[in-house]
User: Which sequence fits this backbone?
């Protein structure tokens, strides 16, 4: 049984990218491994949310996790900031994280480009905090989407470096995990290659979206002028629509529209109508459970308390050992 860790930033309810890239595997893995899944609320502070937004979004992610099928009795489901040991390990790892390597991380460079007025130290050391999240439970496997691949590489760098410095085989070298398959990247509705909250709400379909919202978003998704010759290569927005259809629709619907595209007979409006109804059907059970859980604060509180207890037991053991290794000993 491997130890598994993964987290999600609290930016609202989960979207289909989060689901197919990560949470679907959380649900599968909880039966086979010792799993720790958490809400990365320390991480979300890099964008300076208001206290009210932070609280509401942590709750939404907790609800989405439960609605997606994570069983808090099986997996350890917790809120990152309930485990102060994570912050301590982050501090310790930061001492051996170097400016040059942190500045080269693609997600950091992108943030510098997108928000030049808020390039804070938390953004720079984001991979060290992720390393603390994973190493605090000495995890071997980290189920994530494609966009987290480079972060996992950094985690291994920090883990190996710690072992080398202290000449000890203590931390494992965790890997990004998708059951031996390529990591997943679900595209957005705006023609971009990644479904993402930061690209705006219209780009993503949320597990909580009402049917009418899903219909509107999909009908407005970016398309092109249509193919003019048979077997024409697809533009990015059309590739995206087909990708979404592949994960959400029955195989014969997908095959039908591929044939129409290749024969230049495709009508995007028609294709979108099918896709919208399939997306609505797919999200229905999640939407219903989200509605039920929203009304059940007592249960949510119980889940958070149980998760914090279980996660702290594991985290405090690691911190105790790490302090010993580093040389913090009782005098
Ligand atoms: P975050 O919150 O951006 O995304 C959470 C998870 O969802 C996956 N994901 C996607 N997968 C496929 N297609 C998409 N369009 C898509 N969008 C998001 C992400 O790959 C991720 O698995 N830094 C992390 C959170 C984190 C973490 C950790 C993860 C903090 N500490 C430790 C693993 C281990 C993040 O911002 O993910």
Assistant:
């Amino acid at each position: 049984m491997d130890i598994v860790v993964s987290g999600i930033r609290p930016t609202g309810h989960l979207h289909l990218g989060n689901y197919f890239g990560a949470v679907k595997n959380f649900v599968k893995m909880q039966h086979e491994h010792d799993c720790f899944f958490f809400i990365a609320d320390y991480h979300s502070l890099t964008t300076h949310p208001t206290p009210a937004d932070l609280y509401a979004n942590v709750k939404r992610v907790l609800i989405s996790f439960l609605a997606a099928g994570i069983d808090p009795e099986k997996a350890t489901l917790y809120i990152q900031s309930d485990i102060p040991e994570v912050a301590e390990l982050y501090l310790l790892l930061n001492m051996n994280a170097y400016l040059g390597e942190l500045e080269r991380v693609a997600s950091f460079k992108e943030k510098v480009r997108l928000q030049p007025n808020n390039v804070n130290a938390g953004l720079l050391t984001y991979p060290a905090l992720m390393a603390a999240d994973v190493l605090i439970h000495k995890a071997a496997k980290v189920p994530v989407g494609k966009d987290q691949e480079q972060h996992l590489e950094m985690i291994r760098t920090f883990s190996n470096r710690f072992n080398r410095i202290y000449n000890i085989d203590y931390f494992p070298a965790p890997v990004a995990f998708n059951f031996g398959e390529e990591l997943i990247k679900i595209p957005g509705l705006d023609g971009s290659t990644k479904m993402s909250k930061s690209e705006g709400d219209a780009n993503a379909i949320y597990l909580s979206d009402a049917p009418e919202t899903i219909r509107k978003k999909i009908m407005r998704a970016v398309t092109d002028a249509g193919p003019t010759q048979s077997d024409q290569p697809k533009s990015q927005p059309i590739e995206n629509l087909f990708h979404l259809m592949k994960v959400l629709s029955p195989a014969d619907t997908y095959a039908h529209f591929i044939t129409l595209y290749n024969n230049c007979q495709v009508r995007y409006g028609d294709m979108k109508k099918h896709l919208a109804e399939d997306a609505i059907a797919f999200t229905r059970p999640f939407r219903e459970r989200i509605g039920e859980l929203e009304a059940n604060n007592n249960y949510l509180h119980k889940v958070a308390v149980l998760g914090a207890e279980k996660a702290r037991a594991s985290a405090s053991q690691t911190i105790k050992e790490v302090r010993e290794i580093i040389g913090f000993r009782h005098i």
Q: What stands out?
A: The two ends are 38 Å apart (CA to CA). The chain has a mean pLDDT of 97. The pocket of tryptophanyl-5'AMP is lined by residues 5-9, 17-18, 20-22, 40, 43, 130, 133-134, 142, 144-145, 147-148, 184-186, 194-196 (CB under 6 Å). Residues 297-326 form the longest helix (30 residues).
